[in-house]
Amino acid sequence: MPQVPMMRTELSPELAELRGPIRRFVTDQLEPLAARIDAEGEIPDAAWDLMRGQGWLGMLLAEADGGGGADLPTYCLVMEEVARSHRCFTLLLDATSGLTPIAIARHGTAAQKDRWLKGLATGRLRAAFGLTEPGAGSDAAAITTRATKVEGGWKIEGRKQWISGGHAADVVMVMAVTDPAQRARGGIGAFLVPRGTPGFDVTRIDTTIGSEAIKLGELTFTDCVVPDEALLGDPGQGFAIAMGSLSNGRLGVSAACIGAADRLLEMSIEHAKQRSTFGQRLADRQAIQWMLADSHAEIEVSRAFLYETLRKAAAGEDLGNFAAICKLACSEMVGRVADRAVQIHGGAGLMRGVPVERFYRDVRHYRVGEGASEVLRMVIARELVK
Ligand SMILES: Cc1cc2nc3c(=O)[nH]c(=O)nc-3n(C[C@H](O)[C@H](O)[C@H](O)COP(=O)(O)OP(=O)(O)OC[C@H]3O[C@@H](n4cnc5c(N)ncnc54)[C@H](O)[C@@H]3O)c2cc1C
Question: Where is each Acyl-CoA dehydrogenase/oxidase N-terminal domain found (predicted)?
Fold first, then answer.
């Protein structure tokens, strides 16, 4: 595989040193599992074991909580590198350091952390994040799942859909309305609902345009009573907790977009050098060169912007809308890079089972999940014109 001449924008000299060993591990150890994931439609235990062995599961959680105590730049470097192989590997990072684990780490009581975080950090337990409903996606404040106070706990009623890994999760963080008069202004709670709780059922499993191994659960709650200890934070804090987790996740998603785009460009260069038409290599045609150049330029600019945002985050600076800008720019960028990659490959980029085709489908998720592009634009523009 040709090494794209990166400008070598790096987060720090220390992280620059880490990139080579991480890439070698991903290429030698994880990449052989990529084809298996596609063939079996499941993420094999071997992937969890290998990533656990590297200390990548739960790496963002504090060591006291059983995590790796890594910082966000290191997490994003690993995210970028595993995304060069298969989107499913990014999901393992997300499941163990992402939306729900981070929410528990930030807002959980000592008992909640003790019960969930050590297991989540090692991948022994699986968590899911339950916000979206049939009637509420981008407009998350419109959720109707209801949590009503009962003696000693809360009764949850409602339905969540498209919850990543929700079908197999040991615990789901369920956002539910606790005060209909307040809703997003302090009337939504976040509840940690364990699998097996009476009244909590997985009623459907959806797959998407992306890898078959990516499964989304429909979760139905009927007279589902959880104890007071299941409530994360205050009864009105759930919306803020959920939005805080989503905002945190945007830089990780951006890193995954850059890693996938990098690999797509490498595959495009390799194909363009090998394939000849009308007696000349595709790589020597200006039409193809311009596509390669545009992809390279966009990847480098995106990476530089992500790293600058990560530096600000590491320095404790207020990011404002930079995480949203980053996610918008990187997810749109990888869509364009994937489209060019398929075009450069011609029919060979459309055949089931070739990596380009799989990347093209998988990266389509990024412009919808964790803040669709239009909603991010709305958030960014609102700030500009206020
Ligand atoms: C692979 C995948 C994994 C997911 N995992 C989870 C998960 O783990 N947990 C979870 O809770 N949810 C999850 N979701 C759901 C995801 O968060 C929602 O799909 C997303 O928030 C968008 O909501 P929606 O699909 O209902 O689209 P809608 O909100 O119906 O929006 C449809 C389209 O309209 C646009 N739009 C919406 N409002 C506006 C506006 N005001 N102006 C202009 N355009 C607008 C949107 O950008 C989008 O393009 C997942 C989705 C996918 C695809």
Answer: 13-123
